[in-house]
Amino acid sequence: MKRFVRYVDQTNGNYLPSQYGRCDREVSCSYFYSPYDDHTFADQKVVRIPKRKVKPIFIQRELYKKSLANYRQNNFVRYLHTLFDEEKVNGLIKRYHLGTSTKLKGGCIFYQLDLEGNIRRGKIIVYNPITGRRGRIHSVHSLLGIEKRFYPEWRFFGEHLLIDKRKPVAIVEAEKTAIIASAYFPEFIWVATGMKATLKIEYAQCLKDRNVTLFPDLGAFDDWEQKADELSRICTVSVSDMLEVNANANDMAKGLDLVDYVIAQTN
């Protein structure tokens, strides 16, 4: 039996004739017939088709556990060893559940673990082990051949740490920055948006009723200040202008982030 998603006439809310629609069964049926594909459909009314909901595919726990090893082959972990001693590096690995990719040589897996314990996504980045510069970027879902429509909704990297209610929260863009900043400034819980565009209230419900400080990359201050207005509906939020105040023209041209600046100042 088909599960059928039908077109709706937006002028009156009624369904169009039953031949117009899409079968919602993922594997055994691919029926899809739009009224605009039917040249005999004379009454060209504005219609919409409801968005199909699919069950997201989370990363399997066994796959995740197997990746929590082989850190000598993990370029990002190797880079951390140029900054901190072994005990500190091991603490950072454990805190952020860093994985090692077997598919991308040298790749580090930055998992998005939510407050419910789901392993939502895994971004794989290959860093230079000496300079810490970012190279190739991939994802666990794409390497597993999973279609994007089955990807779970985005979450901030480090969300799982927010089970701790005692500390204020600091937000940066890059996963690398959150991890390293957590070693320099342990008075905050550090999370990362993963991308500038994902600093959105729909991904930020984990911040409800928290005290939050945003640390934008150089050049992103105005944009993140606007985002802060949106986030202020659910949390107490401020935007740090430390980089904007202290950066010189060369720093601005490079678009440095917080950790870039801190490392440059300490070396």
UniProtKB/TrEMBL annotation:
Zinc beta-ribbon finger putative domain residues: 2-38
Coiled-coil residue spans: none
Domain DUF6371: start-end pairs: 74-218
InterPro entries, A to Z: DUF6371 (IPR045951), Zinc_ribbon_put (IPR047731)
Protein name: Toprim domain-containing protein
Organism encoding this protein: Rhodohalobacter barkolensis
Source taxonomy: Bacteria, Pseudomonadati, Balneolota, Balneolia, Balneolales
